[in-house]
Specification:
elongated, 22 helices, 5-stranded antiparallel beta sheet, 722 residues, alpha+beta
């Protein structure tokens, strides 16, 4: 082999055998001659001394020549050269111009040349588009004195690891190692500048098959994966690091350093020191298993991490093996987890809202009976009666309970809404005077209204109630005084984005901001402020339904609400209401009942209610006003009464939610028989629950529960009067 021959010719010392014995004999003769000269100096004379000196010099040169100076290193080098020559690894040594100075037979077979032919340089030994760019980069780095390794695919399932190292005198050594591909895509190996010229890490041969077919095999098409892996590594959107089995980081990209808020390089640090102490054990176990060669390891979720801004971050850590080390991938999932939390919060509030709406519907029936019968009693027990105080107390608390139920319905988005096209500037201007009295002394109210606000479609009373609740909360957050600001402006959203616990679609919105300079709120409190009955106020000073009501009103108006707050920095609530595109087309709005003294009548009314107590109270109240009342406990019974020719019905008052046949279904059948028959729906649910069944009907009216004697009689008189 040429490598073994070169090493022998280099001469690390005279080998043992005849040459060494001849050298020793010459030295012995030189010593004898020297002894004779010293014994008979008068015979030898000056010429003898000169001859002695020459013999001594030659003897010293022979001793230096035959002294063994590296026999062990020679044997090791020969063994390495012999192993490299027999291995399934192609190697070559190139000169300054790139010509091959020496190579092994495997390289010749790979290049497709015989033993007598001159081997081509590595750039020409492997033809193909995938290898061309790789070999060019290797040649360039070798010429500049840098070590480099890259991988390219030659056949499906087979790839070549090409490595180059610089040698003295502008020479370079090349290695080409075949290995089974992990996938059918080229997988380049990380390149980095060499601090010295270490021996390359050579993979074990896959199998002793010759590599010659590689040169003639068709090459796979080039792909983006054949780029410089160094660029891919540095610019990866996720954190990537190489670590040994003990967690020591060999290299890491910028994304990983940014995630942990580290400006310097992470090389040399232990990955376990970067994560939370509670996650350290499982992280180290993952790295150890990956470094040991385990594949398909399950990702670990890391919590309690601190980002560059000190904010809490969450990430998923994945690991895969590579040559006795672990490649770590850190994926930032903070935003994803935040969205999941918001979605879970939205689902929770929806479930609570459904529960509140169901409870409120049933409770409204009870309150209707309580309030109505209290009013009956108050008609017989005037202010001077001993029982008046107790009856009036029951009546007042029933009204308070009705207000509480109204707030629950607002939160569950099932309260009665009477939307119309509104100019928010005028609404807030009318509220400003009352709000200034509401905030009291020591607190300034600043109102900034955009002059050209877009119109919105909402219930004026409910929207005013929402603004009042926000201002009251701002006032309570400033016990030592401060400023409450209300700002309005038009805003166009171009991209959908997360806002609070919902996703706000793009479009035109009118923004209402209510801000204060108060104590602010922590992140934990902000996540609960819209929950019903959650309050930070002392016991007895708040029901916890103020912001829940605001949330329900905004959502039922088709809007969105969010909060920004920091402890000691104040709070900003932002409400976004969608723009009403056609300001001239308002939804049907009930006119306010005209104040009238005469609420009696003689018409025939069909009262449909499945709750017997409510039906009994309402029928009694109407009969007291002179009306003829027909009672029905359900939709089927009411429909039979309408079909009867003996009954001339002027008005139907019906509940919305009833078993078997509900109110809207029954009314559709009635309208088919008597299209002009007026209808009043009574329910604790939202008006939209039945209006969507007959949106164009002007003969449908609504009476929200709970109601009293006067509200019922006034509504009936209003509808019958047209």
């Amino acid at each position: 082999m040429s490598a073994s021959k070169s090493l022998s010719e280099a001469g690390l010392g005279v080998p043992t055998g005849a040459w060494r014995w001849a050298s020793l004999a010459f030295i012995l003769l030189a010593l004898i001659a020297a002894g004779l000269t010293l014994a008979a100096p008068q015979v030898a004379g000056l010429a003898g001394y000169a001859l002695l000196l020459g013999i001594a010099v030659v003897a010293v040169l022979f001793v230096f020549a035959i002294w063994p100076r590296g026999g062990g290193a020679t044997r090791d080098a020969l063994r390495v050269a012999e192993a490299a020559g027999k291995a399934n690894i192609a190697w070559a040594i190139t000169g300054e111009g790139g010509a091959v100075l020496d190579c092994n037979p495997v390289y010749r077979r790979m290049a497709g040349v015989s033993e007598k032919e001159t081997p081509p340089p590595p750039e020409l030994a492997l033809a193909g588009e995938p290898s061309a760019a790789v070999l060019y980069r290797l040649s360039r780095d070798a010429a500049e004195g840098r070590a480099r390794e890259e991988t390219f695919q030659v056949l499906p399932g087979l790839e070549i690891v090409a490595a180059v190292r610089s040698l003295p005198d502008k020479q370079a050594v090349w290695w080409f190692t075949p290995r089974l591909a992990a996938s059918t895509s080229p997988q380049p190996v990380l390149s980095r500048p060499a601090k010295s010229a270490p021996e390359p890490a050579v993979s074990a041969p896959v199998e002793p098959a010759p590599v010659a077919p590689v040169a003639t095999a068709p090459m796979a098409p080039a792909s983006e994966a054949s780029q410089n892996i160094g660029d891919l590594f540095r610019d990866a959107p996720m954190g990537v690091a190489f670590a040994d089995a003990h967690g020591a980081i060999g290299d890491a990209n910028a994304a990983l350093a940014r995630f942990f808020g580290v400006s310097a390089s992470l090389a040399g640090r232990n990955f376990g020191d970067l994560v939370d102490a509670g996650d350290r054990a499982q992280v180290m176990a993952l790295i150890t298993r990956a470094a040991a060669g385990e594949m398909g390891l399950k990702a670990i979720e890391l919590r309690g991490l601190k980002g560059a801004n000190g904010d809490e971050r969450m990430a998923e850590l994945l690991a895969s093996p590579m040559a006795g080390k672990a490649i770590l991938y850190l994926v930032d999932v903070s935003e994803q987890k935040a969205l999941e939390t918001k979605f879970a919060q939205s689902q929770k509030m929806q479930a609570v809202g459904q529960l509140a709406g169901g409870v409120a519907h049933d409770f409204n029936n009870l309150l209707t009976v309580i309030i109505g019968n209290c009013e009956f009693l108050l008609m017989r027990h005037q202010a001077g009666d001993p029982s008046f105080k107790e009856i009036n107390e029951i009546h007042q608390n029933a009204l308070r309970a009705a207000a509480l139920v109204s707030q629950l319905l607002a939160f569950s988005r099932k309260q009665t809404m009477q939307p119309k096209t509104l100019a928010l500037g005028e609404v807030i201007g009318e509220l400003a005077q009352m709000l200034r009295r509401l905030v009291g002394e020591g607190i300034a109210l600043n109102v900034e209204r955009d002059a050209d606000l877009w119109p919105v479609h909402a219930d004026e009373a409910q929207l005013g109630n929402a603004i009042i609740n926000l201002v009251v909360n701002a006032r309570d957050a400033m016990p030592s005084g401060g400023t409450v600001s209300i700002r309005t402006a038009n805003e166009t959203i171009t991209q959908a984005g997360a806002l609070g616990s919902a996703i706000m679609p793009p479009g035109d919105y009118v923004r209402i901001e209510v801000s204060d300079t108060g104590t602010g709120m922590s992140k934990e409190i902000q996540s609960k402020i819209f929950d019903p009955f959650f309050t930070t106020k002392p016991v007895g000073q708040g029901t916890g339904l103020g912001l829940a009501t605001v949330y329900g009103i905004v959502k039922q108006s088709g809007g969105f609400i969010t909060v920004d707050s920091e402890l000691g920095q104040g709070t900003i609530f932002k409400v976004y209401l969608p723009r009403k595109m056609d300001a001239g087309e308002a939804a049907p709005v009930e006119a306010a009942p005209a104040v009238t003294r005469d609420i009696t009548g003689q018409d025939t009314i069909l009262l449909v209610e499945d709750e017997e107590a409510v039906r009994s109270f309402a029928a009694r109240a109407l009969r007291m006003r002179g009306y003829n009342v027909l009672e029905a406990s359900g939709g089927e019974e009411a429909l039979e009464l309408v079909k009867s020719d003996n009954n001339k019905i002027d008005l139907i008052i019906t509940d919305v939610v009833m078993p078997n046949m509900d109110g809207p279904t029954m009314v559709r059948h009635v309208k088919a028989l008597k299209p002009n028959l007026a209808v009043i729906f009574m329910s604790g649910y939202a008006e939209e629950a039945f209006r969507r069944n007959d949106q164009n009907s002007e003969d449908i009216h609504f009476l929200p529960k709970p109601f009293g004697l006067k509200q019922l009689a006034a509504k009936v008189k209003e509808v019958l009067a047209g």
